[in-house]
Amino acid sequence: MINGSLNQPVRAKISYLSRDELYKREKPYSAEFEIEENETMKNTNYILTELEILIHPISTSNQFTLDNNGFCTIKARTHLDIEAALAQVQSVKESYMTELQEILSKQFPEYRRIEPMECVVRSRDNRFPSPQTAVVKHEQPARLAHSDYSLEGAYMQLEAMFPGQKDYFKDKEFDMLK
Length: 178
What we know:
Layout: E1 10-17, E2 48-55, H1 66-69, H2 82-87, H3 89-107, H4 153-161, H5 166-169
Antiparallel strand pairs: 1-2
């Protein structure tokens, strides 16, 4: 539950994936469909830690940098039409990702190559969040704050996006931006 005003820091409880030994052997997962659980098959292997945190408003877009904070904000306009994105996901994704590539290229001229990896169009269902499984029309908001700390996690993502090029990226510097 979040409490506070938009101009002041707010306290919130957020669930994170725990740093557990299990994730050195298994990638965290949660099935998006009902399965009959038993000792070897589970709906999820999530082990969660709930933390109360203080969320500060971002008042100026230039106070955060990738190098110092691990994130930044960019003020830019796109031509994304939300209704079209929900109706024609694939065609809208392609034009939107092209726009984002152009914006990122201008913002980060030091990058030689910007490759889009993923774009998910989400529209919150009125029942979200709900403990019950339901068929919904669109992807729902992410329920967990997390970052991938699995061994070689970045290389696993690269292999999925650029099959057979793991050696090309080995010992090279690269950033993955969300």
